[in-house]
Amino acid sequence: ASLPIFSNYSSELTTYNQKYDKKCIREYYYYEIIRLTVLIDAYYTFIIRKKYGTEMYIYANDFDPLNPYRNSILKEKEQCSQIDKMTYAVYLQSRVTYVLLATTLHSLAQTSFSIEAYSSRNISFQRIVDSSTYCYVGGPCNTQVKSIGLTLDDILRFEVKRHRPMHHQSLLIKITAALSVIMFVVGLISSACSILTFQNASSRQVGCGLYLLASSVTSLLSITMFTIKFWFVVITQMDMSIRPSVLERGCKSIETVLKLFFYWDTWLNACVSVERGMSVYKGVSFDKKKSKRYARWIIFILPIVIVGTIIHEPLYGHVFRYQIKRQSPIEKETNGDDKIMVDTHFWCLTTYPQSVQDYNTAILFIHLLGPFLANLFSALFIIIESARRRAEAQKRQSYRQHLREQWDEHKQLVISPMILLLLSTPRLIISLVSGC
Fold first, then answer.
1. What percent of the chain has a predicted confidence (pLDDT) above 90?
2. Domains along the chain?
3. Residue 333 pLDDT > 70
4. Secondary structure string (H, E, C) spanning the chain
5. Which BP terms does GO give this entry (predicted)?
6. Overall pTM > 0.70
7. Which of 28, 198, 203, 316 fits a 20 to 30 Å CA distance from 217?
8. Is the pLDDT of residue 133 over 50?
């Protein structure tokens, strides 16, 4: 019989290595991942030489540091941890990717090890450095992948101190809370002034007046829902005694209602631009009564259409509850025992299948670019059509001169939607980037 082929690998576990929570109690251990590549299905003998405090595991397919119990096929027995030489005979298949995990027995300890492999065919070792970013929420060994997009929950959740009143919160939370109140007061005053302005019958002789009155109301509702959303996230994190049913309804409804009012307001402003363009196109034949009748129908139909495009969001929204274990330092100091404390957390998540995610992205672009294009093209049409009519009526100036005059008079109609699109770009990027 031919002599077995020998392969070896040696390394150290130090502060340069990655760390993971092996016991799921927020105690971290250094680890190293080695990919095993085998050419045939056969038994392979591994001789592991190590210093005290080293443990070895073999995983099939991959190793997930967030869930270290998944895919494990070979685990070193705890009573053998002090032995400096271990021998394993393992049957490995060539079609399966195997991962060998070397880790420390004690938290943040440092050690070294070497591996010798014997088989009838060569076996190769390849060290793996996991540089991926895990898009997850939850505690160790109890995680869930986040959907695409960054929400207010993601931004504030880790900044809010649990079971602490507002005056004990961080400076960041206090500043954002103050800003949210200021935004609400300013929005309330601005919307109230707009509503009082367009309540006047003289300002509602055409459909534009109705659109602007409805926009004043939706602006007030938008800033109100944003304020509710902010304080819902902060208060539910500070006070963990809130009933789960309240959390579930809030997670499913608040974000959707906020988007409804926001999209409704942007489309109402687009309707104002379109009607102004139509009035320039029709001229003296523009029918004011018909314009008001159309405006009433559009104001009524718009929210129904918008709800139809975002109705999927509450269907896929849910509250993810998880527990994080931690050691109590007070208990350890008093009697020397390691007492495990359990903290319960929750997270509002919206997780889509890939097909729904593609649809959601398309709807996002429609609600962002649709009003922008309507405002832009309507403004350009007003400038070009007004210049053309003036050029026909006033022959002393050329069409280009009239066009320049109309641009100077109405250029804010072109610049303002561009500024709004620029300001909305971060929201679009945040909505499209990974949940990480």
1. 18
2. 5-128 (2.60.120.380), 152-329+339-433 (1.20.1070.10)
3. no
4. CCCCEEEEEEEEECCCCEEEECCCCCCEEEEEEEEEEECCCEEEEEEEEECCCEEEEEEECCCCCCCCCCCEEEECCHHHCCCCEEEEEEEECCCCCEEEEEEECCCCCCEEEEEEEEECCCEEEEEECCCCCCCEEEECCEEEECCCCCCHHHHHCCCCCCCCCHHHCCHHHHHHHHHHHHHHHHHHHHHHHHHHHHCCHHHHCCHHHHHHHHHHHHHHHHHHHHHHHHHHHHHHHHCCCCCHHHHHHHHHHHHHHHHHHHHHHHHHHHHHHHHHHHHHHHHHHCCHHHHHHHHHHHHHHHHHHHHHHHCHHHHHEEEEEEEEEEECHHHHHHHCCCCEEEEEEEEEEECCCHHHHHHHHHHHHHHHHHHHHHHHHHHHHHHHHHHHHHHHHCCCCCHHHHHHHHHHHHHHHHHHHHHHHHHHHHHHHHHHCCCC
5. neuropeptide signaling pathway
6. no
7. 316
8. no
> Cβ distance 27 to 107 under 8 Å?
yes
What are the distances in angstroms from CA 364 to CA 35, 151, 370, 374? Answer: 42, 14, 10, 16
